[in-house]
Amino acid sequence: MSYQCQSCGYKSLKWLGRCPECGAWNSFLEEKEERASKKRETKPFRVLKLAEVSYFSKPRISTGLSEFDLVLGGGIVPASLILIGGDPGIGKSTLLTQMAGYLTEQGKRVLYFSAEESPEQVKLRTKRLQIVEDFYFLSETDLSLLFEVVEEIKPEVIIVDSIQTVYLPELASSPGSVSQVRECANQLLRLAKEKDISIFLVGHITKEGVIAGPKILEHLVDVVLYLEGERETGFRILRAMKNRFGAVNEIGVFVMTEAGLKSHSQYEELFLTGKGAPFCILEGTRPLIVEVQALTSKSYLSLPRRQSVGYDPIRLSLLCAILEKRLGLSLGDKDVYVKVAGGLRITDPSADLAISVSLLSSLFEKELPQKTLYIGEIGLSGELRPVRDLTLRLKEAEKKGFKKALVPDYGKIEINSKTFEIYPLKSLQEVLKLLFGL
Prior knowledge:
Ribosomal Protein S5, domain 2; Rossmann fold; ATP-dependent DNA damage sensor activity; ATP binding; 9-stranded mixed beta sheet; 4-stranded mixed beta sheet; ATP-binding; 21 strands; alpha/beta; nucleotide-binding; 11 helices; DNA-binding
């Protein structure tokens, strides 16, 4: 018997409160040691030069949801292994059930292997979603049964819900343990590559927001997707964290309805309300115009609050310090709150200018001009720094009806438009003078 960390797989002869390898607390579980199996015969193989390998490009398979196809890089790549994670009840099973129904309509053989739901539960969901139910379904936890069924029906797409609840009987450890998740993922990867089957895995996430199980799970798969969003609004965002066949950090926008997840290609009403400071970010290859709102209020605490939703609070504190130092403003006695509309999480530094402008608007109690875009990273000395693909962002803003844009003064901007004005600025002082006359 030994104890194994469920986060990184580190083994110890005794129980430890904290893993010396990854630092996780209370992650050790007792597991039985596997007996060494007999040495298998080595299969014959031949080393090839890459130039000798024949390759035929196979067309991608459409999922039936345009936003899903966009995140995958244009559709499902045959023989790929795709992992989808997200909070409980966020819509992972709903999304995959809709995809299974559409693929079945297109004549594809789909197998839904569920270790969490009964056939009656899935039947009820398909009735609610009003989708085609003519796909294969197997409700089992023993993954070895899947390989027997594959030989019988020869599916083109397999959905495994979820990787943390299935197990292989030859392993003595319980489902969800490091050894089970690792070995199950390896077997499914081998199945996908050898049988030319596209396999989707549903992954549970921990309270820290990462997919449960060893990190090797994310290394094994071809694509890692996260489904996130706010439960109250019904909006969902599917984000690609890893993609061997497309752009990383690509996002797809959905709306949860009674009939399931609907692609929300016209996203303006999701991210724009007209009461904040709009800016344009790049998610993968896709420019998105998003709005941020800020609020400053008198603080009665010894340490004023710096809180944000959808934005890094450490970066918010940094921007507050820059505004105080470079513009001579007093924020030490004020609470500061920032919120990005639509439940989107922003990491793009080009949002600095929009957040700063929104803070200034709240501080001076003056409204910002309408149809004006704010793009730019802010340095510690208050200068506006350049951002990548500025021309692409400005073209997207012009397409969406914006009239003005405040941008960093770096290089030539190739926008030929008589109705779209661009204001190249070098510092926060110039921004303050242009917008508020100060």
